[in-house]
Amino acid sequence: MRERGRTRRLFGLGARTGGAFLRSRLGGEADWRALGEALFEGLSELKGPAMKLAQIVAQWDDLLPPDLAEELARLQRQAEPMPWEGIHRTLVEQYGDLEHHFREVETRPFASASMGQVHRAVTHAGETLVLKVQYPGLAEILEGDLAQLRRIMRLGRWLKVPQVRLDALFEELAASLRGELDYHAEANALARYRQRYAHLEGLLIPEPLPELSGPRVLAMRYVAGTPLRELEQADDATCQRVAATLADWLTEELFTHGELHADPHAGNFAVADDGRLVIYDLGAVIPVPEAHLRAMMQLLDATLAGDPMAMDDALRRLGGRQGQGAPLALYRESAEAVAPLFEPGPQDFSDVRVHRRLRDLSPKVWAAMDRLQPPADVLLLSRTLNGHYWNLVRLGARLDMHARTRPLLEWARR
Q1: What's the rounded Cα separation, in Å, for the pair 220 and 321?
Q2: Which residues are paired to 204 by β-bridges?
């Protein structure tokens, strides 16, 4: 009965969202603030994959109606917590007698997210830890939500996306969401990343504590920080230092180790008191094949050269071009929108002219979707890089992307 109620609520929220976008597309007025509030309240309570997907959408806040973007962004920083009773049961299943392990466990969560929430705890030795606790019954909820998502994704055929592509995208999303339930894998990723990036002085990754962790509880040493979304009042030097660290780390992730942190929403990042960039969540780390990297850099090379035919050829090598008729005008507009960020010298990521061009391109990309159909793994990679781009925008980054990408472009040409 509870599952049927959840399904009805998900269907209702989906129908309301679809109706608002359809009215807007047909030239009508949509109450984006009311829709955003309904989504926040409904998804905060439902938790799980539905909320996770909304957080993914919220990463494109500059491309959404402002009122809707503002409400969805709240899901990244102030989602309604689950009652303590359910969380307490999970902790008792993991530890038995909590007082044997901890002097105190805060009943109010330190942070609430889509798949779990984080509670501070103090050991008998006086050390402060955080316990990331998976929501009760989440594995079963996940499969039910995925079944609903598969039904909703069938609407993609209206955009002339072949069923085989929709199925591949669904499997990619499903694998990513199921992977986030594997706390052993996340603990291993935390340990691996701490060792791998120890030389990056501006980066701070919490230390996992395997002896206190289990299938549904991940224990880490507590690291305080100011969330990335709350850095508007920070001094410019701090923002620029954090932005440079983020760009350095992403480049090394991709081009040295062939992996990528695939959950870039701003709630997963913070700035410590000493100015270091903190990465709180490594529940989603994806492999990135070298062939994809080469093809993406070849696409960037063609884009910066303003060569639409070379852009089309690079997209085909990437697996992102199907059908007949290259959308050459769209390629030219895309090149004009992106090129300013790659001119020599530091470029301002907060330049609203770039954002306007990207926003104007969005409906044209959808209109060409019968010819632009990237495979699921490329869509996930693109979505992730797009999320990290908006994090740089929030920081007001000024980076010399020309100098940063030149050796990578030369590597791709070899």
Answers
A1: 43
A2: 278
